[in-house]
């Protein structure tokens, strides 16, 4: 083999390695959707489509990539976590999203949930209180091409009044009560999903529907989330 064909052979091997690697993630994602989501009753086609396509392994720390599609939460640094795929799917489905929606997320973390929302709706605004996480999620989402997801560093308690009202709001940190500014920034007919409970006791996932000026809340099931913190 001369030098040139050796180089071509090497490149071909390298390229097929990358393809096989990516293919493996596609298979792991399909498996995750089937066994963790559909098997537990997730039916919304938009949620299933999005989670089949968003590369979760790009949102976890490099040393945990092999666990990216496992049935659980994972640490993402700064003492925070990326939620279990089923919880991401359940919360997404609860919002009853349409492709034209504008959505607010509080608790960007890795940016994975924002990307899942971004594949479904027109625009996503997401706020993260920890600066390092906000900055790395911002560049990750940009590099992966999620141009309809806007990340802001700040305290999500106040929502994002300049971009309100929102068709749907998702909070991915456990709050002691539903922040009033978020209720104010939800459109009439809009849905919110938020984990709520006292910091020393059980947190429930709560769905909220705003109807005229009525707020209808429903406790769904107990969940464990990192706490909703405040910038004093
Ligand atoms: N949705 C994330 C996981 C969320 S973990 C993902 O897909 O990876 C919850 C996140 O909420 C943490 O990163 C935490 O720092 C953030 N958080 C807690 N309180 C907050 C607040 N008041 N405003 C904005 N973000 C907050």
TrEMBL record:
It holds the Pfam family PCMT. HAMAP family: PIMT (MF_00090). This is Protein-L-isoaspartate O-methyltransferase. The keyword S-adenosyl-L-methionine applies. It catalyses: [protein]-L-isoaspartate + S-adenosyl-L-methionine = [protein]-L-isoaspartate alpha-methyl ester + S-adenosyl-L-homocysteine. Catalyzes the methyl esterification of L-isoaspartyl residues in peptides and proteins that result from spontaneous decomposition of normal L-aspartyl and L-asparaginyl residues. It plays a role in the repair and/or degradation of damaged proteins. It is found in: Cytoplasm. Its main location: cytoplasm. The chain crosses the membrane at residues 6-26. PROSITE patterns: PCMT. Its EC number is 2.1.1.77. The active site is at 83. It comes from Arenibacter algicola. The keyword Cytoplasm applies. Belongs to the methyltransferase superfamily. L-isoaspartyl/D-aspartyl protein methyltransferase family. Keywords: Cytoplasm, Membrane, Methyltransferase, S-adenosyl-L-methionine, Transferase, Transmembrane, Transmembrane helix.
